[in-house]
Structure formats: structure tokens, C-alpha cells
Amino acid sequence: GRAEVPFGPDAVQKLEALGVIPEASVSFRDRYYDVPNWRLTLADHWLRQREGAGWELKSPLRPLEGAAASRGQQNHPERPAGARNHEPQHPPQPLEGRTHLATQYQEVTCPRDIVARVCGLLGVDPATGWQSDVARAVEELGLQEFASFVTRRCKYRLASLRLTVDLDEMDFGYAVGEVEAMVLREQEVPEALERIQELGSQLGLDMKSPIPGKMSVYLCKFRPAHYEALMRAGSLRKVRAATDEEGN
What we know:
It comes from Podarcis muralis (Wall lizard). Mg(2+) binds at residues 166, 178, 180. Its EC number is 3.6.1.28. The chain has 248 residues and is an alpha+beta fold. It is built from seven helices and nine strands; from the N terminus they run βαβαββββααβββααα. It has helices at residues 11-17, 39-42, 111-122, 134-140, 189-203, 214-222, 224-233, and strands at 2-5, 21-34, 46-50, 54-60, 95-96, 105-108, 144-158, 163-170, 174-180. The two termini are 26 Å apart. Mean pLDDT is 78; it is low at 63-102 and 242-248.
């Protein structure tokens, strides 16, 4: 499980007080793609190409009892036929979700699976040449880049809670922290989220108040029409203006 958390300027000092171990600091560029009518992102599917790491598709899992709450807006569309969780023989993928108001995600990295799911959402049959070539499928399906930004990520490990903490600073002026607990099975997600909550308590963080993710902030700033459409679909969290009252 993974949760975005509201780390402030003193985040590193607070983490060091808990005995975190610094692991790495890297910078990378992410590019996100969708068709012009935003069909993928409106269905809460996020296709990303990360510099040096390849392609990934984040797709929502079915709701887990006790592990995630509804967004309180419209339900997400059903996943396309054949879109299943990886079997245990595949490398474990992290499940992403924000604690409270959370949706759990599976991060799909197998090119064949990515192409199959994208084609399923778009209602087309995968071409033979697309099976292991996501870039070709993206081009021939007419997907377009709608977001591109550089992230500087500092990674820390907290052995006592079996958690990793990423502090991300984006080149468009936004910073956010992510706490991650790796899981092998969906059934482990509730316990993982409990560990994340425990870290939040130790750091004195307000884990109940939702915070906007980096994509929400980026689209609000640079792609307002796309942002508004995703807000109406319940796929993004509202970016509060500085004059808004707390909690709106």
C-alpha cells in the first residue's frame, strides 16, 4: 500500500528523529499519455513512461472491504475483460492508495498486459506488432502526451515499520511525500495501511485530511479542462486555492 502524506519543510528532520536510513536520491522525467477524449484517465487508468524505467499502467483494483473508502462520487468503470491481478509467479507490484478516501491501484509493467488493458478500455483489438511494444501501440492508437515533468526523489527506509518513504519535489513547484509498504497479495493491504497510519501518528501528521496528488496539481495548473473533467468523474482530488477554507 502507498499513501501520499502532507510532509512539511521539516520532513527530513522528523524522519531522522525516527531513525530512517537514507537510501538514494534520483531525478527522472515522467510522461503521461491518453487519447484526446481522455478515455483512459476518465476511467482512472494512468499510462506513464518514466525515463530510464519504461512503461507502467496504474489501474484501479476492485474495492477491498476495510481497506479503502469510496471517493463518494461516481463509481469507476469495470476493468476490461482479461484484466486480472498478476499471479504470484510475477514480480510483486506495489498497490497504490491514499489512506482515507482511498482507491487501491495495481501498477502493471508487463508490456503485453499494458497493451491489452489499454486496448480493452478503447474497445479495439491489439495489433500483432503491439504485443511487446507499448510505444508503437501508443503511436498507432493516437495517444498523446498530456503531462511531462521532472521529479527529484529522496528515498528513505524505516526498518521498524517495514516502510519506505519517498520525498518528491516536482519541477513545477509542488512537493509531496509518499509512504509505501510492499505487499504480495491484496489481502495484505489493510495491514500495510495500518503501518502507514502508525508512521503518520509518530510524525504528528494529519492523515485524515485529503491532499492533492502531483497529477491533480499539474493538471489544475497546466491543463484546466482535463482537470475539471477528471474532477467531475471522481478521478482526481480537488486542488484547494489558498483562499479556500480548510477541508473544502
